[in-house]
Design a protein that fits this description.
Residues 61-366 form the Luciferase-like domain. By secondary structure, this protein is an alpha/beta fold. Helices cover 45% and strands 15% of the residues. It has one domain: Luciferase-like domain (TIM Barrel, Alpha-Beta Barrel). α3 links the parallel β2 and β3 (117-124).
């Protein structure tokens, strides 16, 4: 292996062979990619469809083991030509609590996949010492042969900051400061730190990563300033349609592209990744009916989490939800209908293609297909097999 790796090639190959054994996913319908996926900045292309990845966020799996779903889906999409697997960082909540550390999950995925990009979606960087983040993700970069990408976020739930109470009020500033340090550490630049005896040390983190540059996304949803900042600083963007719809998304993508152009960056090379709830069924009507129970339960939980997140407007949200009373179910059904009609990848293959073409026309480069919102593993894999026919057509 290259000088950037730290494991002997024979040991790494043997470890991968042992870890790859496990329940086999359905045979992919798309032709496997012939070479490791390049870093996204080098992979921009002209196409009617965005790239397709999968993202895990809730850990809801229809009663089965969330890690069983994660591993089998990851084996499948690696062979089927998908672009990336995203895993989140979530703390102290039952929904999503299966994913407290994307670096640990990324290390596991590195050992059972060969081509697909391994992405954090996202690392809440103000919760952590940046030295540890650099060490952990360089390790995953070695295990994967240079397939690591990171989306970074400031964190949003006040309760999460029991891990770093002093960081909550200033989290956006801390994120930007830590992001710059992380990228410097990745390149091999030393940072100064004092030990308990008062001595100052020049710290270089190890292992050294395989990739000379760390591909970075900024996680953002509605904030136009965040989109503008990402463009001005050469960052990719990971987003979701939370409290806004496709027309507002198009506006934010335009802000992002314009910001890149203003600072002399190619506006087309920044990657916009969009998370969408995904289920592709045999026909559109049955797909919607199939996901309704799982999706409405998921959305109800998600709305509650946002209402209690500790943000400035959280009390108003909590009061609004409380005042809904018996109308709460009707409200969640309304949210579900909006999601299905404009903000999801739920339907049949033809509808999925039309939706993907629509988001590509808005400027979206990749769809991160959210798959763990409550359906059993076999149905998730069947859905991805149908979606993989579109991957095959593009390759």
């Amino acid at each position: 292996m290259s000088d950037g790796t730290f494991l002997d090639a024979d040991r790494l190959a043997g470890l991968k062979a042992r870890l790859k054994s496990g329940p086999a996913a359905p045979a992919p319908t798309a032709a496997p990619v012939g070479a490791p996926a390049p870093a996204p900045q080098e992979a921009r292309r002209s196409s009617d469809l965005p790239d397709l990845g999968v993202i895990f966020f809730s850990g809801l799996t229809g009663g089965s083991d969330p890690y069983d779903l994660l591993l089998d889906v990851s084996r499948y999409v690696d062979r089927a030509g998908f672009t990336a697997i995203w895993t989140p960082e979530r703390h102290f909540t039952e929904v999503g609590g299966a994913y407290p550390n994307p670096a640990v999950l990324g290390a596991a995925l590195a050992m059972i996949t060969e081509k697909v990009r391994i992405r954090a979606g996202s690392v809440n960087l103000p919760l952590h010492d940046v030295l540890r983040a650099a060490e952990e993700w360089a390790l995953v970069d070695n295990l994967s042969g240079g397939r690591v990408d990171l989306a970074l976020a400031p964190g949003w739930h006040a309760r999460d900051f029991v891990l770093n109470p002093q960081g909550y009020e200033n989290r956006s500033h801390l994120l930007n400061q830590a992001r710059e340090q992380l990228q410097d550490l990745w390149r091999g630049t030393a940072v100064q730190r004092k030990d308990p005896l008062g001595d100052t040390h020049e710290i270089v983190t190890f292992p050294r990563p395989v990739q000379p540059e760390l591909p970075v996304w900024l996680t953002s949803s509605k904030s136009e300033d965040a989109w503008r900042f990402a463009g001005e600083n050469g960052l990719n963007v990971l987003s979701a349609l939370i409290n806004f719809g496709p027309p507002e998304l198009e506006k934010r993508i335009a802000i992002y592209r314009d910001a890149r152009q203003r600072v002399g960056l190619d506006p087309a090379r920044g990657v916009v990744s969009l998370m969408l709830h995904t289920y592709v069924g045999a026909d559109a009507a049955s797909a919607v009916d199939r996901v309704r129970p799982a999706m409405t339960e998921y959305l109800s939980s998600f709305v509650t989490q946002h209402a209690t997140a500790g943000q400035a407007d959280s009390k108003d949200k909590a009061d609004t939800l409380h005042n809904l009373g018996d109308d709460r179910d009707a409200f969640v059904e309304m949210v579900f209908q909006r999601y299905v009609s404009s903000s999801s990848l739920i339907g049949d293959v033809a509808g999925a293609r039309a939706t993907l073409e629509g988001f590509r026309a808005l400027g979206v480069d990749e769809i991160a297909c959210l798959v763990d919102f409550g359906l059993p593993k076999d149905e998730v894999l069947q859905s991805l097999a149908r979606l993989a026919t579109l991957v095959q057509q593009e390759n």
